[in-house]
Write a structure and sequence with these properties.
The complex is a heterodimer of chains A (about 260) and B (about 290). Chain A is α/β, with parallel strands linked by helices. Chain A has one domain: Thiamin diphosphate (ThDP)-binding fold, Pyr/PP domains (Rossmann fold), CATH 3.40.50. Helices cover about 35% and strands about 20% of the residues of chain A. Chain A has nine helices and ten strands. In chain A, helix 7 links the parallel strand 7 and strand 8. With about 290 residues, chain B is of the alpha/beta class. Chain B has two domains: about 170 residues, Rossmann fold (3-Layer(aba) Sandwich); about 110 residues, Rossmann fold, CATH 3.40.50. In chain B, strands 1-2-4-3-9 form a five-stranded mixed beta sheet. In chain B, strands 6-8-7-10-11 form a five-stranded mixed beta sheet, with helices on both faces. In chain B, strand 1, helix 1 and strand 2 form a beta-alpha-beta unit. In chain B, helix 6 crosses helix 9. Chain B starts with 6 loop residues before the first strand and ends with a helix. The model of chain B has no long low-confidence stretch (mean pLDDT about 95). Classes of the chains: A alpha/beta (about 260), B alpha/beta (about 290). At the A-B interface, strand 2 and helix 2 of A face helix 1 and strand 5 of B.
Chain lengths: ~260, ~290
């Protein structure tokens, strides 16, 4: 037997190996999230909501109470549970399709209302579960199933900058950041701060995590890493966009 | 899901949008209550008088329409059936609807507001689906809710299991009212506020010695199928009166399928129906 990697306590061992594709970023984001939950010792208080798309494969991922919702509706479902039971810690987990397309109104409204929930959004620049179609986050020139010649911003616009949008509609008390699976230490730090912000009851917390999808990007390991580490941060700046009580935080490149 | 009773109220295109969460609630067996005051449709149209959301409310969403729909005829009904809807939803865990129409939302009439306990009505206690006591995996299993399946067979088992439960509760849940149907040649069927006009017309004609009765399904879903079939076997003709273009008639025809009764309709989509109009129509047919 080879030694197995240590799993966070809040992971559900019997559902591992997980259901995501090899090379997928979801497992890494959820590892950071699981470790943050462990360190804050909030396992019995967390309700984890997952969306439609690849994120729904996390429905039995954790040893946490979990609700899978309709596409884009994780934010309002978690908002409802949080309002009914403020002592619970509600995490809405979704992809860029759920959060920035079909569910964008919920992100905007709950951010504007400063709902005391934590939204974690995996951005892999396309709709992965359905075979890699263009999403609001697809980079200019990036080829997908529905932009075979590359995304043309003239026709379909530029990538949506989620944390910047959320930052614009939130006020004091919100925590907004963008991390990446290319820097797990930083990403975990952001997720932990986002949860702490909810625990402190200060306001809306939002973390976008840049994620990889080699299956649909059709990239090998080196190309995948190059895209996630070098190409994506050129559009999607990494760092904390907003800190509770301090207005706009320092935006640091690559942690 | 968090263990608190909740409801929403909507109409028209809002009811269309609500079908998304309600079809999910149907599959997840969540206790939900929706109060709908029907609009004239399709879509935004008018807001005053209509019974055009019957099909949508009874069978909307992608699913099998396993839900309970109470059609109310006035303010007392709205009060009584809202209490009942919460109990039904939490007891059976199928989405429950209180279906009135725009007219009921705008009219004034007296009603008795009471404490349910004073009338011996026990309110079903809510319970949380998530966030129960204890640490998941240590003290209890995590509570994980989903409506996503890997195999068609998994879905088949889930849906057929729910369907069996739904069919089992029909006799407990289905409700109706009837008046003068014993020995009647013609029965007039209507629901909601339209039934009040029908009943007035039928009472008047009974006094004149005509062999006519009336029947009101209170639950449009599930329909009181046994009583509808008894009715269809006992009369020669059924006249369906509704402020829509045959939405109730369609449900009724399905329930009465195989009986010899002739089903006629008096349809006025989007507008009100008076007792005088129903009376004239009955006289035409008898």
């Amino acid at each position: 037997m080879y030694p197995q990697p240590v799993m966070p306590r809040s992971w559900r061992v019997e559902t591992k190996p997980h259901k995501f594709c090899p090379g997928c970023g979801h497992g890494l984001i959820l590892k950071c999230l699981g470790e943050a939950v462990d360190e804050l010792d909030i396992q019995e208080r967390v309700v984890f909501g997952c969306d439609i798309g690849c994120s729904l494969l996390a429905w039995d991922f954790f040893n946490l109470d979990t609700v899978q919702t309709h596409h884009g509706r994780t934010t309002p479902v978690m908002t409802g549970i949080k309002r009914a039971r403020p002592e619970l810690v509600c995490i809405a987990y979704m992809g860029d399709g759920g959060g920035y397309a079909i569910g964008v109104q919920h992100i905007v409204s709950s951010a504007a209302r400063n709902e005391k929930i934590t939204v974690v959004l995996a951005n892999n620049t396309q709709y992965a579960m359905t075979g890699g179609q263009m999403a609001p986050t697809t980079l200019p020139g990036q080829k997908t199933e529905t932009s075979p010649y590359g995304r043309d911003p003239e026709d379909t616009g530029y990538p949506l900058l989620g944390p910047e949008m959320v930052s614009a509609v939130t006020r004091e008390g919100a925590y907004v950041a963008r991390g990446s699976i290319a820097n797990l230490r930083q990403l975990k730090g952001f997720l932990k701060k986002a949860l702490e912000n909810q625990l402190a009851g200060k306001g809306f917390s939002f973390v976008e995590a840049l994620s990889a999808c080699p299956t649909n990007w059709r990239t090998d390991a080196a190309e995948t890493w190059n895209f996630i580490e070098k190409d994506l941060p050129r559009y999607f700046k990494l760092g904390e966009v907003k800190l509770p009580g301090a207005g706009r935080g320092e935006v640091r490149a690559n942690g | 899901m968090a263990g608190r009773k909740a409801f929403t109220a909507t109409a028209g295109p809002g009811n269309v949008l609500m079908q998304e969460p309600m079809s999910m609630a149907e599959m997840m067996r969540l206790p939900t209550v929706v109060v709908v005051q029907q609009r004239g449709g399709p879509s935004t149209a008018t807001v005053i008088y209509s019974q055009q959301e019957v099909t949508l409310t009874a069978t909307g969403g992608n699913g099998e329409g396993m839900r309970v729909v109470y059609s109310t005829a006035g303010h007392q009904d709205l009060f009584d059936y809202t209490i009942k809807a919460f109990n039904t939803a939490w007891k059976y865990r199928f989405p429950t609807f209180v279906l009135g129409d725009g007219y009921q939302a705008k009219m004034r009439e007296s009603l008795t507001i009471y404490d349910p306990a004073a009338r011996g009505i026990e309110l079903t206690e809510p319970e949380p689906f998530v966030g129960r006591e204890g640490v998941p995996s240590k003290d209890r299993l995590p509570s994980q809710h989903r409506n996503t399946f890997n195999l068609e067979e998994e879905l088949y088992e889930k849906v057929t299991g729910d369907a069996r439960e739904y069919e089992k509760i029909v006799p407990e849940v289905a409700e109706y009212q009837s008046y003068g149907i014993e020995g009647a040649h013609l029965a007039v069927v209507a629901h909601g506020v339209v039934f009040r006009a029908v009943r007035e017309a039928v009472e008047k004609l009974l006094e004149q010695g005509l062999k006519v009765g009336c029947f009101r399904p209170v639950t449009l879903r599930p329909l009181p199928v046994t009583q509808v079939r008894d009715l269809a076997s006992g009369v020669k003709k059924i006249l369906v009166v509704e402020s829509s273009y045959g939405q109730l008639a369609r449900l009724l025809k399905e329930a009465a399928s195989g009986t010899a009764v002739e089903i006629l309709t008096f349809l006025k989509p989007g507008i009100g129906i008076t007792a005088g109009e129903v009376e004239a129509k009955i006289k035409e047919l008898i």
